[in-house]
Amino acid sequence: MFCSWCLNKVRSFYDDDDEDDDDVVLGTSTISQQIPIDTSGPLPPLDTTQWGQPIYISAHPVVKIDHDKEQPLPLAAPVHFETDLFKGIVFFRLRDAPSPHDEVHTQYFEGRKRHYQVMIQGQFKEELNMKDILIGDYYSKPMQNIPRGAIGSSFMRMYERFMQVLSPGIVIDLLSSKPKILTSFGGVQTLRIDLPGEEPTINGAIGNIKEDTTLLLGDKFRDDIQKRRKYLSNPENSRKYVVNPEHVYSFEMYDHSMNFGTYHQHIVGGRRVDIVQSMNGQALAFACFTRDKRCIFKFPVWHERMIIDMTSRYGLSVLENINDAESLSSYETCMSAEVPEQRKKEPNCWHLLSCRVV
Fold it and tell me: Could you tell me the pTM of the whole model?
């Protein structure tokens, strides 16, 4: 079932379907910056009635934001953020989690199959080769409910090779203890590059970002977005280009298969897959990395059913003593250890009440 999510993630890259932020002072997270980038970061409030909606979007601790870090990031409102590699604005819109402040929510999704829209605008802080910029995520724990064993693993490796043929820029490893799936940045649905001061204002208006890659590609693919996406999705082509820190990049991502409002993947035949059962307590995220795993941005998207699932498996008292997903992974390993000596070796085990060795 998880294979369907991966295939649709790649397919989505081929789916057609006012103040200057220089003065914004971005807050810093109180959570240690040592939390690995392949985790989902801090767990959201366990009392999901505090969320105000079934989903909770957060910023990974490496991302500084101009928003109360004790609250979910707002929908249908621009949020300023900054990392070591990028400074800009992000805007989220989810079909099944409408914001009361979004005047065009219904109009935006009407007649469209897509389940979400994400717009990001800003400037890279250093020159990066475009083949080394990837959209997707890394995970700290193995996926669940995917084929394993001799036959299952062979099928999955064959499936991964098929995906690499289908999308030459994909980075995929689903069977390891630390899975990953990422696709080329050049394949985003809409891409616009401007000189500072000429970029559009990200306000959620329909058609907010109009394609314009003249500063990157000249007249090539000026009137054909699909050809641009296919061209830049291939590392053999994207390696010829770099992002310019002097330019402003505006890009849009959307997808007709992943519904974050319900945390289900819609696949062929009208069927859907429950992603909660596949993610092993890890949140999907809107994220971007360099090929050497430096974070450009990462915004985990939690669903209330994930908290219910983890509470049923670990108990509320355990979750209340865990402040991030990496510790939860350590807790699992810690409690499965047969003798106290093994538990002592497990990172983060010392601060979990249920794991302390006495």
Answer: 0.80
